[in-house]
Structures are given as C-alpha cells and as structure tokens.
Design brief:
9 helices; 238 residues; globular; mainly alpha
Length: 238
C-alpha cells in the first residue's frame, strides 16, 4: 500500500543508479556505433546516444540525479548544485558502469567472425589519424571543451527550479543528440570521460594514448559552464 512517503535513496542506491545509467548510455550509444553503425550512420548513432541518456534520465534520474558522466558531476558541483564530496564516488560508479558495458559489448561484437576491436576503433575517440574526419588535436580539444560546456548550460538550465517541470530528460537527450551530430566527424564525440574510457580499454594502445584529451577537455568545459552559469544567466532561485 502506498502511504505517500518517499524514502531517500541510500548512497549505494545512488551509485548503483549512476553505474546502471552510464552502462545504458555506453551500451546504447557505443553499441549502436559498433554493431549497427554501417546500417544507421552518424544520424542513427547520434540519436542512439540521445535516446540512451533520455531514457536513462527518466529511469535512474529520480534516484541519483542522472549524471552518467563525470563531467556533469563536476559541472554541477562547480555550479553549487551538487556536493563536491560526492563527485569521486559518482565518477567511480560511472567509469565502472561504462567499462562493464564495454566488456559486454566486446563479447557481443566478437560473436561476429573476424571482428577486431582495435582495427574497428570500437567507437573510441581520437584526434589526428584517429579522428573520423582527420581533425587535429587543437580542433578536437576546442570542440570537446565547447560542446561539453554547452551541454552543462543546457543541464543547468532545464534542471533549475524555475524550469518547466518534467521536461529536463527530453531536453538533455536532444542536446546530446545535437552534440553528436556536430562532433562525430571531429572526435567521434566524447563530452564524457566515462564513455571514452569504457571503450578505450579495448581499442588498443593508440586509443589509450589519446584518451587523456577526452578526460581533460570535458572536465574543463563542464567546470567553465558551472562557474559561468550563475553570472551569465542568474542564480537558481530557492
């Protein structure tokens, strides 16, 4: 019987929700790229990432806030919307969820004879000769910082108390879709250190050598947006 009392999620439940949500994001987005990329193309992959974060936000967001991305946790903490003490635990859960998704995706992909994760790229991110369009380090760095910053601006805006209730997941999912439409040719789109690490483990030494950029740039972009949001757009009223 529902007595109308909502219990506060425990720390373990919040971390579990973050792990599950990040797992779903990587399985849905990177899984589409690896298993169905030739069929659906960049447009389909972009929508897969957007749909994964949209559905994850509504499924797991009520428990943990639905970050699924260390950069989101850092951006929200910088903006004063999330406790800094909780960032390390969230980031660890997100990387674990992404990495487990990467393992299972590899097992599935290797069910096809001749599949090679290193040769295929395994949906990993890169610059220079590992960029889908051959974009250099500087262009990829700027793209990842800029798009992660705007992703955080969207998240901070739609999750504010003054925002329309119930639509935040939709807006965030569509924003991530747009981000992928812009930057798949540039970097294969990260804006999420956990997403990058979750597949880079299996994509070979070159992918791991470049993954630093896809950790640093999203964190920098998120921190910039978190620090600038209140100044540019006003505080979130109590």
């Amino acid at each position: 019987m529902d007595d109308g009392v909502t219990s506060t999620p425990t720390t373990a439940q919040r971390l579990g929700a973050e792990a599950l949500g990040t797992f779903w994001l990587v399985l849905g987005g990177c899984g589409t790229a690896v298993l169905a990329g030739d069929e659906v193309g960049a447009l389909g992959i972009a929508f897969a990432f957007g749909l994964a974060v949209l559905t994850g936000a509504y499924a797991f967001g009520p428990v943990s806030g639905g970050h699924f991305n260390p950069a989101v946790s850092v951006g929200l903490a910088t903006a004063g919307r999330f406790a800094w003490r909780d960032v390390p635990g969230y980031a660890a859960a997100q990387v674990v969820g992404a990495s487990v998704a990467g393992v299972l995706l590899l097992v599935i992909a290797e069910g096809q004879p001749g599949f090679d994760a290193v040769e295929s790229g395994f949906a990993s991110n890169g610059y220079g000769d590992r960029s889908p369009g051959g974009y250099g380090l500087g262009a990829v760095l700027l793209t990842e910082v800029l798009l992660t910053a705007f992703f955080l601006f969207v998240i901070l805006g739609v999750s504010a108390r003054r925002a329309a209730v119930g639509f935040s997941g939709l807006a965030i999912g569509l924003a991530l879709t747009l981000i992928h439409l812009i930057s798949i040719p540039v970097s294969n789109t990260s804006v999420n250190p956990a997403r990058s690490l979750g597949v880079a483990w299996f994509a070979g030494a070159d992918a791991l050598a470049q993954v630093w950029l896809f950790i640093v740039a999203p964190l920098v972009g998120a921190a910039i947006a978190g620090a600038a949001h209140a100044t540019l757009l006003g505080d979130d009223p109590e």
